[in-house]
Amino acid sequence: PPLYKQRYQFIKDLVNKYKPKKVADLGCADCTLLWMLKFCKCIEVLAGLDIRENVMKEKMHRLSPLPADYLQPSERSLTVTLHHGSVAHKDPCMLGFDLVTCIELIEHLEAAELEKFPEVVFGFMAPAMVVISTPNSEFNPLLPGVTLFRHSDHKFEWDQAQFQSWAVAAATRYDYTVEFTGLGTPPPGTEDVGFCTQIGVFVRKYPKNGETVNSEKHTEHAYKTVFKAVY
Ligand code: SAM
């Protein structure tokens, strides 16, 4: 299957393994991953965030309940919300999540946004688990037609050492562990270049203490809710 589908499947497998109840997808674009995740029975809260409102709204109606959901209500409750905003800003609606996914997001961030990102995601949202994927620039020479970046909207593409040192610094600062994996294996003989997509899986070391969570709730809203469905 194409790499973007492998990335969604990677998240689905992780959800089925760890059974998070609250999952947020940052840079959710046309909500394909959220739509796939709504079929995971363990999930009770799904949230999406993107800076491009129109892209997010394009196919958001597939996140609405289907007639069958009304005719045969399931035991679990499910709430799906979409927010318009930037990962450079904190909003209390992103507190209390078990899993936050950032699939092919960070390479689209301007330097100033990227600088704020670790504090927002690891410091403020502080979910139990964070998954970040990004292109591995070492793989680019194996891709036909790629000169500088894989996509014209990419602000940077990191090699394995660059991504790993950034990820380890963020993990250390905010008390997470991080493990690296990836998708898209290089052809035999070129193993050193690593995976086409590099992935960091971050796990929070300590449970979040209630006091911090409460004080953070007083942060002002920065996102606009553009969609909400309750099953
Ligand atoms: N995660 C999706 C996927 O894997 O198919 C979409 C990835 S797309 C390459 C990157 C997305 O990040 C775009 O939808 C873009 O609008 C969004 N984005 C860029 N900067 C953002 C920001 N500062 N805050 C939130 N989303 C942002």
What report would you give on this structure?
The protein has 231 residues and is an alpha/beta fold. It has one domain (3-221): Rossmann fold, CATH 3.40.50. Helix content is 30%, strand content 23%. It is built from seven helices and eight strands; from the N terminus they run αβαβααββαβαββαβ. The chain has helices spanning 3-18, 32-37, 53-58, 67-71, 111-125, 160-173, 210-216; strands spanning 22-26, 45-50, 79-84, 99-103, 129-135, 176-183, 197-204, 224-230. It has an eight-stranded mixed beta sheet, sandwiched between helices. Helix 5 links the parallel strand 4 and strand 5. The model has no long low-confidence stretch (mean pLDDT 94). The structure holds S-adenosylmethionine. S-adenosylmethionine binds next to helix 1 and strand 2.
Task: Fill in the CATH topology.
Answer: Rossmann fold
The secondary-structure class comes to alpha/beta
The CATH architecture:
3-Layer(aba) Sandwich
**Annotated CATH homologous superfamily:** Vaccinia Virus protein VP39
Distance between the termini: 31 Å
Oligomeric description of these chains: single chain
Reading the helices and strands in chain order gives HEHEHHEEHEHEEHE
Ligand set:
S-adenosylmethionine
| Number of beta-strand segments | 8
